[in-house]
Amino acid sequence: MKRAESILIPFGAIAAGMIVFGIFCALAGANPLLVYASLWKAGFGSWYSWQNTLVRASPLLLCGLCTSLPARAGIIVIGNEGALVVGGLGAISAGLATLSMPPWFCLVTMGIAAMLCGGLWIAFSVALQHYRGVSAVISGLLLNYLAIAFMNQLIEGPLRDPSSLNNPATYPLTPDHRLAYFSGTHVHHGILFGVIACLIAWILVDRTTFGFSLKISGGNVRTAQLVGLPVGKLVVIAGFLGGACAGLAGMIEVAAVHGRGNESLNAGYGYVGILVAFLSRQSPLGVLVVSVMVGGLLASGGMLQRAHDLPDATITVLQGILFLFILLSDTVYGRFRTRAHINSGVKANAVAV
Amino acid sequence: MTRRELLAGLAAPALLPAASTNQPLTVGFIYNGPKNDLGYNQSHAEGKATLRRFPWVKAIDEASVPETVAAEESMRDMIFQDNASVIFATSFGHLDPFTIDVARENPSVQFFHCGGLYDEAKHPKNIGIYFGFIDEVEFLSGMLAGLSTRTGKLGFVAAKPIPQVLRNINSFTLGARSVNPRATTKVVFTGDWVLPVREAEASSSLVDQGIDVLTGHTGSPRVIVQTAERRGVFGCGYQFDQSSMAPHGFLTGAQWAWGTVYVRIAEMVRAGKSVTNGTIPRRLTGTLKDEFCKLSPYGPSVTEQSRSRIAAAKASILNGSLEIYRGPIRDNEGHTVVPAGRTLGITDVALDKMDWLVEGVDGRAHG
């Protein structure tokens, strides 16, 4: 029953969201059925659109984990964007410092630096909540602003390549020190990092004692403390791991997409990651599926503009509607079960009588 | 295509421009922000709209395309799904690496990027650069500000201290001081291209300091002009015509006229020319004279006398007798940046590296 619920409710919420979105499209003068068809075609209709979808999904996988891992320990993290940005900055700094080294060494250093930066960023925000009672939601939001300001300061100041006149950026990585693409496609290797991270996270939270202790701390702090779990350490580590994922997403942006650090690091992937985490109900395997789904949605945004003359904000509207429905649907969990229990109870009584 | 058609096409491409194809020429545009921003993006969308006059052009566009893989994807989609053979990437950050990558994959498609420098070593041959020099229009707008101010204090809300922005602050100030030598410009940098709330705060605080003409250079200075109107001071626009934001206090503004570029390139492509073989210039730039940019319509409070002075100055710019970067020019730290007797033409590459603010500007060009 529980399993059926965890599949039916999200899909029901998505269906309801799509219906409301269809009404929105109709009001904007587009035929909703054709819009759905376009969404499908542009997101999943061909190998070409699948490539677009996978490219879009790649940062979302890691940014989704940034919220879903600490959520296991009962902490809502929304500082994904900031963690991605500082991760990207850490990566480009480390990358530029090791340009004289062989590419594999440079890339590994970039990855480690990015994960450290992103991890510490979120761990700090989580620690503030656990030890000092400052809500991680608030501190995460504020830290996002801080990270973006910090990035602008570095990119327009000490890290700036003086030849990047009208588009301030850091010095570039050399082409052989960048992440490669799958041959014959425009999908970069970054997606592998995301998939592997999701699988590791799944094993960690669902198949280890660490994951179990996290769940206990998230479920009830007092109980966790009573059974002697080091709750503080657990939640901070969960925050660190989540942040490390978002930081890695920043590294991928730098090493695969931009080849340098610039203000485009702050492209909103972190915020979409929050959506992904909630849509997947904080499950790492769910993040895997939902990232691809949301990636497909994002990839079809352009088609909606060109084929249906819908405004550019349409895809944001769809995201917003879906997010609302998913959050609403969270309140429905368990209701069906109770009714089913009551029903089966009634039946049992009837039989007894 | 028959052999005769092929031969005719080879023999006289200029005489028979459309002989080889009955398909419309599909032209794709990508903008970084919304196309109704009353600013930079709308100036390009308006440029795209001028292509409607050609029944043989099918122009498509995508707005709010960020400078990420999304830009690559939009360009590829236009090529593969809509058959676009010309792409205009209008935002500075769309070039490297996105336009470069997609151009390399699609050598038969021509790409034109707004701004930046072409690097023969790095960039594929099917990329052209187009841009406008708007300094002279800013100069005229500054002149009108200088003629209209009562306090002699002008305010400039700017996004970032990059050369393009510094050029506008400086030419605006040079214009103002050419008619009102005591005029000064106070600059506030907001730090980013689209920060409406901070732009409004900065504008308001400038008015509190006695400034009575406000202008700016952000993605869209709409909010700046709007705040000027609300606070009862004059406003000068930028990027696009913002006169609707200030029915009383609007003076004028410097705005882009990208339609000139788009019409010209579309005609060249139709005539069989291409940037790949060099028949379309690799770098297509223009000034006020080339109608790449223009002055916004005057607001109601601009006097006849001011109008005729601006018209005279504009005529001198057009006939070449008024050059705005004429030495001696000193920066606001006392260094001579253009020595006496020397004049920098506005297309001079030295100006593309501008890192100073001219005397009379209250602000700092770097950290």
Helix percent band of chain B: 25-40%
Q: Compute the gyration radius of chain B: what is it?
A: 22 Å
Please tally the β strands of chain B and state the result: 17
- Uncertain ranges of chain B: 1-20
User: In CATH, what is the class of the largest domain in chain B?
Assistant: Alpha Beta
By secondary-structure content and strand pairing, the structural class of chain B works out as: alpha/beta
Topology as H/E string of chain A?
HHHHHHHHHHHHHHH
The helix tally of chain A amounts to 15
Task: Tell me the CATH architecture of the largest domain in chain B.
Answer: 3-Layer(aba) Sandwich
Q: Which chain pair shows the most residues in contact?
A: A-B, 32 and 39 residues
Chain-wise SSE layout:
The complex is a heterodimer of chains A (353) and B (367).
Chain A lengths: L1 H26 L4 H13 L2 H26 L7 H18 L5 H30 L3 H21 L33 H18 L1 H11 L1 H6 L4 H28 L10 H11 L4 H16 L1 H8 L5 H16 L5 H18 L1
Helix pairs in contact in A: 1-2, 1-14, 2-3, 2-12, 2-13, 3-7, 3-10, 3-11, 3-12, 4-5, 4-6, 4-10, 4-11, 5-6, 5-10, 7-8, 7-10, 7-12, 8-10, 11-12
Chain B lengths: L2 H9 L13 E6 L9 H10 L7 E6 L6 H14 L3 E4 L5 H11 L4 E5 L12 E6 L2 H14 L4 E6 L4 H17 L4 E6 L6 H13 L4 E5 L4 H9 L3 E6 L10 E7 L2 H12 L12 E4 L6 E3 L8 H15 L6 E2 L2 E2 L5 E3 L4 E2 L16 E2 L5
Parallel strand pairs in B: 1-2, 1-3, 3-4, 4-5, 5-11, 6-7, 6-8, 7-17, 8-9, 9-10
Antiparallel strand pairs in B: 10-12, 13-16, 14-15
Helix pairs in contact in B: 2-9, 3-4, 5-6, 5-10, 7-8
